[in-house]
C-alpha cells in the first residue's frame, strides 16, 4: 500500500489549554489531526498522535486561582465549568491546604485542576471518536537543563543573540534578559525572543525544548496542527526545529481555519447579528460524531468555517453519508475501474488537506450510483477512502 519510504511521524494536534473547555476550532483540529494521522498510517508510516498539555505557565496558574477561589466559597460563584472543576478538586485535597499561603497550595491545586480539566477534555475527544497515543505535560519536561544545552548549541551555530542583536558565542550560565534566536537565517521573518525582560524563558523557548524532546524520540517528520492564530508563531518554530535537528527532521505546520457562529438568516436590527457559537456538547448532540466529522471534512481550507445547528446542513450531511453507503451496497460489476486510493491519499497528505479525500469519496460514490453498479476496485477505493477519513461504514 505504501508508495513512499516508511517514516516515523509525530502528529501533534488539539493541544488546547486545560484552562478552558474545547471549542469548535479544537473539534475541527481534532478531526483534521485524526485524518492526517490516518492518512500517514494508510501510506505505511509509523504514526504517534500527541497532545501537548500547557500546564506550566500563567494560564495554568490563573486556572488554579479560579478553582481555589471556588473551593473556598463555592456559593459565591455562578455555576460554570470552573465551579465543576472546583467540585472535583475539593474532594481530593486536604483541608489544611486551604489555610496555607499561595506558594503552598498553588502547585497542588494546579495539578489537580489540570487533571480534572484534562479528564473532561479527553471525554470530549473520545465523544468525537478521536484517540491520542501520548499526552506530554509541559511541566514534565526538564526545560531548564535542556534549554541550557540548546542555547549552547545555538551559540555554536551562530544563532544566539543578546538584546541588542549581537551574536554571543556561549550561553550564559544563568538565564539573562532578552536573549534572542536568529531564526531569520532559516527562513523566518524576525528573530525570536528566548527570554523575556525578567530573564524568564518564553513560551517559545519552552516549546523549542518540547520539540527537541520530540526530535530525541527519533521522528523523521513532525506535524503540528495549529489554529490559525498561530500563523505568525509557526515560522519561528519551523526555523527553530530546523536549527535543532540540523536538517535530519522537519517540522510541518497545518493551520486550522477559525470556526465562527453562522450569521443569523435575517439579522434583525435589534438582535445581535451573530448567534453564539454552539458548544462542542451541543454540536455533538445535534449532529452526532459522524456527521460532525463529515461537516469539518467538507469545509475547504482557506475561509473561516461558519458553524450552526441547522436542519438543512444536517440533511445534506446525512444524504452524503447515505450516498456512500448505497454506493457500497450496489451490485458488483466486473467492469474494471481504475483505483485511485493511494496516489490520492498521498497527494492529500502532502498538501495536508483531508478535504481532497472527502470530495473524492463523495464524487466516487455519486459516480457509482449513476452507473448503477460498482466494480471490485471501486469498492476497494471507496472503502479505503472512507476508512482513511474515519467514516468507514
Ligand atoms: N506545541 C505547541 N505550541 N502546541 C500548541 C499549543 C496550543 C496552546 N495550548 C493553545 O491552546 O493556544
UniProtKB/TrEMBL annotation:
Per the UniProt record, the source organism is Lentibacter algarum
Q: What is this protein called?
A: Arginyl-tRNA synthetase
UniProt keyword Methyltransferase present: no
- InterPro entries cross-referenced by the UniProt entry: Arg-tRNA-ligase, Rossmann-like_a/b/a_fold
The signal peptide stretch is none
Q: Which Gene3D superfamilies match?
A: HUPs
For molecular function, the Gene Ontology terms on record are: arginine-tRNA ligase activity; ATP binding
Q: Which domain of life is it from?
A: Bacteria
Q: Which GO terms describe its biological process?
A: arginyl-tRNA aminoacylation
Sorted keywords for this record are: Aminoacyl-tRNA synthetase, Ligase
Amino acid at each position: 500500500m505504501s508508495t513512499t519510504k516508511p517514516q516515523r511521524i509525530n502528529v501533534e494536534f488539539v493541544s488546547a489549554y486545560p484552562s478552558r473547555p474545547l471549542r469548535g476550532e479544537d473539534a475541527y483540529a481534532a478531526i483534521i489531526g485524526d485524518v492526517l494521522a490516518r492518512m500517514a498510517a494508510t501510506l505505511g508510516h509509523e504514526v504517534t498522535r500527541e497532545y501537548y498539555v500547557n500546564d506550566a505557565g500563567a494560564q495554568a496558574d490563573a486556572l488554579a486561582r479560579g478553582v481555589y477561589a471556588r473551593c473556598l466559597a463555592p456559593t459565591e460563584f455562578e455555576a460554570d465549568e470552573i465551579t465543576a472543576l472546583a467540585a472535583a478538586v475539593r474532594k481530593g485535597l486536604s483541608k489544611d491546604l486551604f489555610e496555607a499561603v499561595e506558594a503552598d497550595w498553588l502547585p497542588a491545586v494546579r495539578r489537580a485542576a489540570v487533571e480534572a480539566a484534562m479528564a473532561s477534555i479527553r471525554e470530549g475527544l473520545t465523544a468525537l471518536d478521536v484517540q491520542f497515543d501520548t499526552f506530554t505535560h509541559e511541566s514534565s519536561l526538564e526545560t531548564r537543563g535542556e534549554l541550557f544545552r540548546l542555547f549552547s548549541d545555538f551559540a555554536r551555530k551562530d544563532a544566539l543573540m543578546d538584546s541588542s542583536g549581537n551574536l554571543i558565542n556561549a550561553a550564559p550560565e544563568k538565564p539573562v534578559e532578552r536573549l534572542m534566536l536568529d531564526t531569520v537565517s532559516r527562513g523566518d521573518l524576525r528573530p525570536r525572543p528566548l527570554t523575556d525582560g525578567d530573564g524568564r524563558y518564553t513560551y517559545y523557548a519552552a516549546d523549542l525544548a518540547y520539540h527537541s524532546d520530540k526530535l530525541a524520540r527519533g521522528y523523521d517528520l513532525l506535524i503540528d496542527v495549529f489554529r490559525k492564530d498561530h500563523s505568525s508563531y509557526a515560522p519561528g518554530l519551523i526555523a527553530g526545529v530546523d536549527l535543532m535537528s540540523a536538517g535530519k527532521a522537519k517540522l510541518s505546520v497545518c493551520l486550522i481555519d477559525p470556526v465562527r457562529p453562522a450569521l443569523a438568516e435575517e439579522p434583525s436590527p435589534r438582535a445581535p447579528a451573530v448567534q453564539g457559537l454552539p458548544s462542542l456538547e451541543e454540536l455533538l448532540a445535534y449532529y452526532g460524531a459522524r456527521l460532525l466529522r463529515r461537516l469539518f471534512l467538507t469545509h475547504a481550507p482557506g475561509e473561516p468555517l461558519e458553524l450552526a445547528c441547522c436542519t438543512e446542513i444536517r440533511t445534506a450531511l446525512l444524504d452524503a453519508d447515505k450516498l456512500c453507503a448505497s454506493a457500497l451496497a450496489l451490485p458488483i460489476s466486473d467492469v474494471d475501474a481504475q483505483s485511485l486510493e493511494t496516489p490520492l491519499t498521498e497527494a492529500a497528505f502532502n498538501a495536508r488537506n483531508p478535504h481532497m479525500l472527502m470530495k473524492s469519496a463523495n464524487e466516487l460514490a455519486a459516480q457509482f450510483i449513476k452507473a448503477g453498479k460498482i466494480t471490485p476496485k471501486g469498492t476497494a477505493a471507496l472503502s479505503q477512502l472512507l476508512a482513511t477519513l474515519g467514516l468507514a461504514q
